[in-house]
Amino acid sequence: MTISPADIETQAAAFQEGFAHLRSEIGRVFVGQPALVEQLLVCFFCQGHGLIEGPPGLGKTLLVRTLSDALDLRFSRIQCTPDLMPADVTGTNLLVETPGGARDFTFQRGPLFANIVMADELNRATPRTQAAFLEAMQERHVTVFGTTHPLEEPFSVFATQNPIEMEGTYPLPEAQLDRFFFKLTVKSPDIADLAEILDRTTGPDQHTATARFGADVVRTMVGLVKRVKVGDPAMQMVLRLVRATHPDAAEAPAMVKSYVRYGASPRAAQAMILAAKALALLGGRYHVATDDVRRVASPALVHRIIRNFHGEMEQVSTDAIVDGVLAAAEA
Amino acid sequence: MTDRPAGQLVIDHVSRCRRRLRLLAFVRHACLACATAVLVAAACALGLRVSSAIAAEWIGAGVGLGLAVAGLAAALRTPTRRATAAALDRRLHLQDRVVTALQLADDEDPIASLIVRDASHRLRAVVPARVFPLDLRFDWRVLLAPAAAALGVLLMLSWNETAAVPQAPAARGQGGAAGRPLATQPPSAEAARAEEVAAAPEGMAATAPDTERRAEPSAAATSQSRDARAAAANPAAGDARASKEGQSQRPSTGDDAETTSARTESTLAPSEPERVTSRSGGPQGASSPNSPEGVNAPASAGAPATPGRGGLAAAALAAGPAAGGVAGQSPQATDLARAELPARQPSYDVRYRAAWVKAQAALAQNRVPRSLRSYVRNYFEAIRPATAE
Known about the structure:
The structure holds two protein chains of two kinds.
Chain A: H1 5-29, H2 34-45, E1 50-53, H3 60-71, E2 75-79, H4 86-90, E3 91-97, E4 103-109, E5 116-120, H5 127-139, E6 141-144, E7 147-150, E8 156-161, H6 174-177, E9 182-185, H7 191-201, H8 215-227, E10 229-230, H9 232-244, H10 254-259, E11 260-262, H11 266-282, E12 287-288, H12 290-301, E13 306-307, H13 309-313, H14 318-330
Parallel strand pairs in A: 1-8, 1-9, 2-5, 5-8, 10-12
Antiparallel strand pairs in A: 3-4, 6-7, 11-13
Helix pairs in contact in A: 1-2, 1-3, 9-11, 9-12, 9-14, 11-12, 12-14
Chain B: H1 4-48, H2 52-76, H3 81-92, H4 97-103, H5 110-123, H6 128-131, H7 144-164, H8 167-171, H9 189-199, H10 208-215, H11 223-233, H12 235-245, H13 257-268, H14 273-281, H15 309-325, H16 331-340, H17 348-364, H18 370-382
Helix pairs in contact in B: 1-2, 1-3, 1-5, 1-7, 2-7, 3-4, 4-5, 9-14, 10-11, 11-12, 11-13, 12-13, 13-14, 13-15, 14-15, 15-17
């Protein structure tokens, strides 16, 4: 089916209006942090998975749930614990008795079968359970007893992890970290936001987001994002950025050579391009600009850069490394 | 669907901006290259002490060379179409619209056509000269330094030439009456001077110091010219000397034989023949009516020719600068006089022949006193150039 420029313009206008509506609806429930909200929405409309990191009590779960409510999508939440089993996530075959009296195995779908999955404190789950998420996030299907079950589109996993309570946790391996499209950091609210939070949560009125869109609309919006064109300047910038994160690359700045063990994978480049496309649409453009790449570089790269011993000992943050990489790529 | 006109519009706009960038690059390079070339040319001209005319030519050539280099540099370093589009994006904050539109100008995708249309819409009102104004990337006043340096060098060389010109007449006897540079005098200045002297009363035409001053630097201070000067300064002494040497062939005509003799000596003195000639001929009054071919023609500024002494003087004057510049009768002096002759004057040989023809005519017409005829012949024999037959 061919699509006309007029149709695209209509879809783009709907995308911008829907995005603004989502921002507004989420803002009615989740106070402040507009950048975080935007990154979350970009991540979702690019059909990526987000790793949300922040101290407890900052509304990580609320944020993802509100997104699901506003989009009118199926939402499921998994509280990860050390005793959580993969079958508890993916589902399992149950022996059931048919109406005719026969017994048969029937697949019982797990919480992964939803449009938006919230994996709370993912780093508390055992590596075995984390691996169950791995296949679902990357392949968008689960395999149980040799049978593959596709996941319904749209599908996004938003995992949270608590950076301060590391005891009894299983830090996510690099391979699994790489599966996350963005790493979103929730910051503590300032005075005004904190007052607003108190006002909203301690009063008699309960704020909720108005449901809208649905899976079909979201799929259309996701498809539109992928149609956005990428010009040479933006593409070159993405390539330079990714190359600059590798300590053995000539383009790498001194900071990367000193403190980085592994650089970003091609998935980082894919994430930057896709996220930049979404930002371009939001900006009323049908092409990616270098400014878009610049805006998405940090959330796309920060969890994909693995520091070496010196970097960890000197407590060089990956944010600082990404800033250095950005400066080197623009030079 | 492809929006070809919009794509072509984008390409045209980018091409116009590209031409503008090329022009700016040319101007920028031309300023630098011309300034450098002018400085180098001025330095070379100053170092080699060439004339101001040559220095001006060198500086002009430097400017031309700078322009050529700038043109070459601008042609070689013209930004590509893509670089021009990127520059447009940066200047107009178009967020890579033009670059992407240029890249997708031939794309069939509907999104591409939207991008191209958007870019062409934004470029429609763009004026390249406003987007890329003249920017030398340095303070234009820097260019005043090489210009001032070139002008200074030209002025310095020109001043040196002006100061050096009077040295030539000074070497030849302090030049004209007003001490003007020789180069500023017209070719007939000496004849005019002779006219002035001729118009003066007899005996006041030339004072002894004047004669001495003129004769002194003539470098050809032969003994004969010294005698002539002495005679001019002190007619009595000159008389005595002439009598003593037996060369005072007194003219059969004339009022004062001694003075005439001395004047004749002075006339034949190479240092200033024309002056003395005029002096001797002037007071005598009108030109000779039987002077067929204007013996005094070289002194045609008005110096009258008279028979007798005047004729001899006219003959010597006809020899003009040749005789005057010979500095006596020594070959070295003749060479010196040749060296001092301005390049644009006829050669010594030509002038000698002309003067000798006129002298022969004067001799044939008995306009030269008999007692002086041999003297005239001897004189011309003495100053005869080696090449003359």
